[in-house]
Design goal:
This protein is mostly beta strands. Helices cover 2% and strands 42% of the residues. The strands form 3 sheets. Strands 4-3-2-1-5-6-7-8 form an 8-stranded mixed β-sheet, with no helix packed on it. The chain has a 4-stranded antiparallel β-sheet with strand order 9-10-11-12, with no helix packed on it. Strand 13 (236-239) and strand 14 form a beta hairpin. The longest helix is centred in the N-terminal third of the chain and has 5 residues, at 80-84. The radius of gyration is 20 Å and the shape is globular. The two termini are 35 Å apart.
């Protein structure tokens, strides 16, 4: 297209019905091995993570392939509010149930992040889950690290972050150059306006755990009214490419009931000296530091 040539567009139709497929997203300076396919992911309750491989052959487009899925068994979960069939899912302070927020419980959330750590390939993913699919069941954020996606994929670690009865949803995660993970999300309940929070883990932490406490990017001062049920479609955690250490997170909130929604942008590092090296053994620093906090 850059050279003014005709558009080539290899594509594939998936005959079976799956919830939304999320494409992989490369992060870090170590590239995938040569001829690595693109990965796609999807989830199905009660315990399935699907992986597809998409290989494009630009020399002979007809030789492109889309294979899968490879199905991995994960910890049981329910898609909140009947897999998004009930959009009024997440409660807010001072509103009727009709103005509850969409939990988007039928799909993986941003991002399906690919990382290559000295030959160890991983896919990182998250989505909203609940103990059952009934409306009124608090939601949490399920996260995964899946290794060897182009060989024999397996779930290396997983967990659900739901430390109390508040609803946590609209998650997004990223991983830095030392394999430390940060997870951002929205939080709400009948007793609070929607807020933006985050947590994380070091690579050296016990598997399947998020030992950090919650950090607060902002506590909203209002609830959404009259704008439908959709919330925070572009919640996104990403890693700064200039240092591969600084996490940037953006999400939405309200400063007054029913006013114009706002965007909060914050950045932090999992530990203060990430740019100079990994933490020393037995280093117990645990609270991420907000470095910047913008409100466009």
């Amino acid at each position: 297209m850059k050279n003014g040539l005709a558009l080539r567009h290899p594509y594939f139709d998936i005959v079976s019905t799956y919830f939304n497929l999320l494409p992989g997203n490369l992060r870090g300076s170590t590239l995938p091995p040569a001829a690595e396919p693109e990965f796609f992911g999807s989830i199905d309750q009660p315990s399935t993570f699907h992986i597809w491989k998409f290989h494009v052959d630009w020399t002979t487009p007809a030789n492109s392939t889309f294979t899968g899925p490879t199905d991995l068994t994960v910890a049981n979960f329910a898609m909140p509010c009947n897999a998004a069939a009930i959009q009024a899912c997440v409660p807010q302070l001072g509103v009727t149930s009709g103005n509850y927020l969409d939990g988007l419980g039928d799909r993986l959330m941003m991002q399906l992040q690919y990382r290559n750590f000295s030959g160890t390939e991983s896919l990182w993913a998250n989505h909203s889950v609940a103990a059952n699919a009934n409306q009124g069941t608090p939601t949490g954020v399920r996260w995964y690290e899946i290794r060897d996606p182009n060989g024999s994929p397996f779930v290396y670690q997983q967990g659900t972050y739901q430390p109390d009865s508040n609803y946590r949803w609209m998650g997004s995660l990223a991983v830095d150059k030392y394999d430390d993970m940060a997870l951002g999300y929205s939080v709400s309940s009948t007793a609070m306006n929607p807020a933006i929070r985050y947590t994380g883990r070091w690579q050296s932490d016990p598997l399947n755990t998020l030992p950090f406490g919650e950090g607060a990017l902002i506590q909203g001062a209002g609830s959404q009214l009259g704008n439908g049920n959709r919330w925070g479609d572009y919640s996104a955690m990403t890693i700064d490419p200039t240092d591969d250490c600084t996490f940037w997170y953006t999400n939405m909130y309200y400063s007054t009931n029913g006013g114009a929604w706002r965007t909060r942008i914050g950045s932090f590092q999992i530990y203060p000296w990430c740019a100079t090296g990994p933490p020393p053994p037995n280093y117990f620093y645990r609270l991420p530091i907000i470095l910047k906090n913008a409100n466009p």
